[in-house]
């Protein structure tokens, strides 16, 4: 079994509202649909189906939110990673691209609706997101992004240098892209709240119930754990990067990319008035990303990708993050102490969009969220529940495809891409005579 970093090390584990009471599956349970995986994808699918009167049983190998849903940084920005909307249309083709674009760009509507409807205690703040321009030439991409997203109904705008400093508190940016519908939350609190909502709608959740095997039984399927089984008409795997067994080859459909997240001590009130004064989420605009925002206690929660010594040497890594944060915000005159540090895993696809696999008649799996966990996992429940309710394959927002292993180059491709981004960031800054952060 893969080794994951201690779940208890996360800020969210220390601060999230309690999980609903659940038990381990023992004996036989019956369901119309059995869902494997207690993260955002599985939970929102279960919630949609339970609300529709479908008898649902959800099985989770560990505890609710143990995987990426409880380890991510809590950013909720309804956009796509890496590819622009025109590139997605070319890559996915129609009608699939337009359907997926519509679902993803409206994902925060679903998040906000579920939080409000079920009174989920998860520090939800919908104060927007800024992708900054770290060089003057980056403004061209910012302007194109605003045009493309606004054309599909998103509420975004371009910020000039003065405006971006007013929103972020940083004098280092040359402008930015402001997405007003983005938000941030307590990642584990949101997952636990979704679980409570599933139970309130009549769904059954069993934790510490790892799926060992799925076999045909009669006209349906037997989903077997060490202590019991679920007899169901349909089965959905939504285990993402934390897929361990359950269906042969499913864990080969993606490659793991690790990300680390750290949280500071609560910053002084005067510092908080100067740094992120509007409580937005900030992306510093580099391909070698640094993304950060506040939690409810006034801690900066920041994330980066491991690279070389960064991520392996804890003291060095914390220094890199503190130096980057203080360079972006020279008004921080206190030492930065990082109270929490943890890792999460991303199920990376070369297309960086989810893949929906047709495993057998009545059995599907979905992997490849590629780091867009909160909004993407939240909207995928709608697609998977539609499949379970019998919506024709041709009308779904994701194309059903045969199980396919990730290409070999994904073993090293993401890391090479990050290194390329780092060099590109440096060269672009030099060309534009823009300031460079420490450890560029």
UniProtKB/TrEMBL annotation:
Q: Which UniProt keywords apply?
A: Oxidoreductase
Residues of the FAD dependent oxidoreductase domain = 32-387
In terms of Pfam families, this protein maps to: DAO (PF01266)
Gene Ontology MF, one: oxidoreductase activity
Q: Which GO terms describe its cellular component?
A: cytoplasm
Tell me which PANTHER family the record gives: FAD DEPENDENT OXIDOREDUCTASE DOMAIN-CONTAINING PROTEIN, SARCOSINE DEHYDROGENASE-RELATED
Quote the protein name from its UniProt record. Answer: Glycine/D-amino acid oxidase-like deaminating enzyme
Naturally occurring in which organism (per UniProt): Phyllobacterium bourgognense
